[in-house]
Amino acid sequence: MKPGFGRVYFTRAGEFGGSAVQPEIRMNNEVVGRSVPGGFSFVDRPPGKYAVTTTTEVENAVTFQLAAGETKYIKTAVTPGIFVGHVTPTLEFPEQGQSDIGRLRYVGPKL
Predict the structure, then answer these.
(1) In the chain, N or C terminus with fewer CB closer than 10 Å?
(2) Where does the DUF2846 domain lie (predicted)?
């Protein structure tokens, strides 16, 4: 990552239910990826306050502060909805996030 920036990883387990539900992941209203089953992606951003949102029938969000040199892990997971599953982002502990990435495939833009 560039000096003075932090990194945010987005993960989603490879669950069977809800695999067709792959909404955009937005960070401060900017599309930064999709919630893809069995996948992970990441973005590097300057320090600051961020809100990560996903939207299906409803919008779900998690907010956090990112410091220079810091890494955050956002897990997205499907929960039942009325018409379609809801994808909810949650902030993970670093140890869990690192472990998740080891079991997932990269689904972000080509590096």
Answers:
(1) C
(2) 6-81
pLDDT tens digits, residue range 92-107? 999 999 999 999 999 9
Question: Which pair of structure tokens corresponds to residue 42?
Answer: 């990441």
Q: Can you tell me the distance from the alpha carbon of 20 to that of 28, in angstroms, rounded to the nearest whole number?
A: 25
Instruction: Decide if 1 is inside a domain.
Output: no
Beta strands in 1-111 (DSSP E): 6-12, 24-27, 30-34, 39-45, 48-55, 59-66, 71-79, 86-92, 105-106
Bridge partners (DSSP) listed for residue 63: 51
CATH number at residue 37: 2.60.40
Joined tokens for residue 68: 């220079």
In the chain, alpha helices (H) = 94-103
Residues in the chain predicted with pLDDT less than 50, given as ranges, are none
Q: Are 48 and 27 in contact (CB under 8 A)?
A: no
